């Protein structure tokens, strides 16, 4: 059974890695439709990634080890969250009890912080400008995101995501409660900011 659970955990990480660009394409297309535009194709992020991986690598002369390690830290942080939080299953996987909702949010923030440091380390004024913009968005969005997480955990009386999921499945009245609907609305607004 342990081998099967580990296989499911690896499959979850690979599924997130493969289907994340498709989700991004869906979000961009949906935003364009809301603005009464056509928008790009759903698979446009895959095309962009293919084009990006075939571009020449440009590294500033003033870049230090931080510039090289930041993308690795960010990518690792993004792939660590599906190890800790069950996304495709409604039951805990082997590593699910090692992280809770706030821990997952903090790991994602670590990835964003790595990219922020790379922008500052580049030594280019546009890198600093983009990093300061990212800090401003984080200052505005992160406290709200933490409050959404705390609100959901207070409703479920647990910080483990699969327990929250089981509560919503077992008691559908919680799903339609005003507090939960307001938390979902706040989270959807935060998605547009991020």
TrEMBL record:
The answer, when asked if Transmembrane helix is one of the entry's keywords, is: yes
Q: What is this protein called?
A: Respiratory-chain NADH dehydrogenase subunit 1
Q: How does it sit in the membrane?
A: Multi-pass membrane protein
Q: Looking at the keywords, is Transmembrane helix present? A: yes
Q: Which organism is it from?
A: mine drainage metagenome
Location, primary (coarse class): membrane
Which keywords does this chain's UniProt record carry? Membrane, Transmembrane, Transmembrane helix
InterPro entries assigned: ComplexI_Subunit1, NADH_UbQ_OxRdtase_su1/FPO
| Matches recorded under Pfam families | NADHdh
Which GO cellular component terms are attached? plasma membrane
TM annotation in the entry: 6-28, 65-89, 101-123, 135-155, 175-193
Where in the cell does this protein reside?
A: Membrane
């Amino acid at each position: 059974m342990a081998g099967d659970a580990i296989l499911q955990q690896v499959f979850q990480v690979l599924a997130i890695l493969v289907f994340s660009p498709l989700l991004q394409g869906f979000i961009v297309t949906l935003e364009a439709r809301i603005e009464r535009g056509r928008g790009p194709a759903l698979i446009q992020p895959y095309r962009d990634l293919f084009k990006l991986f075939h571009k020449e690598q440009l590294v500033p002369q003033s870049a230090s080890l931080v510039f090289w390690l930041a993308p690795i830290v960010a990518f690792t942080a993004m792939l660590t969250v599906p190890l800790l939080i069950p996304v495709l299953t409604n039951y805990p996987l082997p590593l699910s009890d090692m992280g809770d909702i706030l821990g997952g949010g903090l790991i994602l923030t670590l990835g964003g912080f790595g990219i922020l440091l790379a922008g500052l380390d580049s030594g280019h004024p546009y890198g600093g400008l983009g990093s300061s913009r990212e800090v401003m968005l984080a200052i505005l969005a992160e406290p709200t995101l933490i409050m959404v997480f705390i609100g959901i955990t207070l409703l479920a009386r647990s910080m483990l995501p699969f327990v929250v999921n089981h509560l919503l499945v077992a008691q559908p009245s919680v799903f339609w409660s005003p507090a939960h609907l307001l938390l979902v609305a706040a989270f959807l607004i935060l998605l547009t900011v991020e």
